Amino acid sequence: DISDAGLKYHLELVLEDILDNDSTVNCTAEVLYHSGNKNLAPDVQFTIHGELKNTDDADNIFYNRIKSLEKELVAENIPDSHGNVAPEMEPIRLLAWAASGYVIWQNSNENTDFQLAQIKHVKQVKRNDEYLEFDYMILLHDMASQEIIPWQMTVLWHPQHGVQVTQDSRQPKHELE
Amino acid sequence: MKILLVFAALVAAAGSEQLFVGDQVLRITASNEEQIALLRMLGERTELQVDFWRDPTIPGHPADLRVPFSSLQAVKIFLESNSISYSIMIEDVQELLDEEKRTMMKSRRLERSTSTFDFASYHTIDEIYNWMDTLVNDHPSLVSKIQIGQSYENRPLYVLKFSTGGSNRPAIWLDTGIHSREWITQATGIWTANKIAKEYGQDPSITSILDSIDIFFEIVTNPDGFAFTHSSNRMWRKTRSINAGSLCVGVDPNRNWDAGFGGSGSSSNPCSETYHGPYAHSEREVKAIVDFIRGHGNVKSVISIHSYSQMLLYPYGYKTAPAPDHQELNELAKKAVSDLAAVYGTKYTYGSIVDTIYKADGTTVDWAYDNGVKYSFTFELRDTGRYGFLLPSSQIIPTATETWPALLDIMVHVLEHPY
């Protein structure tokens, strides 16, 4: 308990590669939830004790595939109702996973527990530069309240420059659905 | 077609009764010529003993590869490190073969039977209700279907009764699908009901259990919600009852029970996913179970199955004070979770609801416990968030398979500890 600031947690965790269960790396982190302004994202400091796998090859394959599409990519319901993800959509899902991590971080407090539940809709946005841009509508599931929260996010990505969420906004739930 | 392929491909080996336990069939899609070449090289590595059921030809066209269990890890690493995308088409070849054998040996007189039902995919409410009838048909002396009430939208609430006779024997209650979006639970329920019927007379544990105890199994506990997840909103959780004075529909059926009803572990807002409803047991789906269990008078265990989080929970959710039987329930949970993990390594946490997940008021198991049902448990099945409610159908059978020993542990304990 850090009086006047908030509650600080020290975490020891293991990162596991989604694509390879046996590839793990240890990580330590400190998370400070602010007690004053509850709208402030928690402070996070972390250290990765080891090396993350190099993903250059996969990144470049994906990048080139999208760059060479004749029409902008559009897709919906990833995964679908049955949990299926078409193999070519898997990187789109992983990108959403990474980007939603940022959105979740920015909107987390001690009473939330968000997971990415589904990509409702994704649309590629044409760009003149080397970046890829995707406009996502995702559903976040908050385990604590059990609510499903639609969220829009604009995601930029480039193999060498990584992921960026340039814009995001919580969407109203349609009550008649 | 797939069935013929499997049989044809393995008929040579079948003669000498070669087993294919744990072997998988991977559907691989090469995205360029280089990857095609790599796949062909993979096929030539004799030490791996893989065989292509569908050869890699041109990029974009899937190739199907059977991989023996012992080579699985090596092959997957090869594919992943070369960024060759694949999916698991068949989780366990032996299981498929056994299933086929059963199917083929079945008499032609049987039009539909439970052995041709696809347990590895998600079904609609009609398909499930039809399957229930075939289960009863296939095991008429063990299984019967009873109706305990109607949902808000007047769908029948069906319960499968497993009984070897007697009169008002002690009973175990199981329910799945009370939260309609938790599709893995109804799917697990179907597989488990089928397993119970199949294993009576084969598996010593379930046989002893059913020789003294009846099992009541409600698979589609929230049919209106379930139909809604198919027709309109896959993420629907609650019932579909109309709330007076609100545009928002539905009550959380796992906050509607009379145990700590209306507390802070639920919401008074009809628009909320945890809305407790106007009063306890306001929901027909809940009232039907309350009336059934009260009317029965001899229910010794209530096991309510949810997803996701991978947890095994016992009362209380509405208060922090430990349940009087806390120690015994904890020990039993510990054993069940350990036996579950032994199947595929799936890790569960366990404990009281309030300690392990969150404060939750008006839950099924708290009501059951406070009404004399000592062995009251809630399962939260796979996964822990990667797919969440949208668990791939390829995980249905593994999930049900690993949950089975845990369920057995609880049921055996009920058998061995009468009260």
Structural overview:
The complex is a heterodimer of chains A (177) and B (419). Chain A is of the alpha+beta class and 177 residues long. Chain A folds into two domains: 1-53, Nuclear Transport Factor 2, Chain: A (Roll); 54-175, Nuclear Transport Factor 2, Chain: A (Roll). Chain A is 16% helix and 47% strand. In chain A, the strands form two sheets. A five-stranded antiparallel sheet of chain A has the order 4-5-6-7-8. In chain A, strand 5 and strand 6 form a beta hairpin. The longest helix of chain A is centred in the middle third of the chain and has 17 residues, at 90-106. The termini of chain A are far apart. The mean pLDDT of chain A is 92. Chain B has 419 residues and is of the alpha/beta class. Chain B folds into two domains: 24-91, 2-Layer Sandwich (Alpha-Beta Plaits), CATH 3.30.70; 106-416, Aminopeptidase (3-Layer(aba) Sandwich). Chain B has helices at 2-14, 33-44, 72-81, 93-105, 125-138, 183-199, 204-212, 223-231, 284-296, 326-344, 353-356, 364-370, 396-416; strands at 24-29, 51-54, 62-67, 85-90, 143-150, 156-162, 171-176, 214-218, 299-307, 311-314, 349-352, 375-381. In chain B, the strands form two sheets. Chain B has an eight-stranded mixed sheet, sandwiched between helices. A four-stranded antiparallel sheet of chain B has the order 2-3-1-4, with helices on one face. In chain B, helix 6 crosses helix 13 (396-416), helix 7 crosses helix 13 (396-416) and helix 10 runs antiparallel to helix 13 (396-416). The longest helix of chain B is centred in the C-terminal third of the chain and has 21 residues, at 396-416. Residues 12-16 and 107-111 of chain B have low confidence and may be disordered. The chains are: A alpha+beta (177), B alpha/beta (419). Chain B: One of its GO terms (molecular function) is metallocarboxypeptidase activity. Chain B: This is CBPA1 Carboxypeptidase. Chain B: Residues 1-16 form the signal peptide.
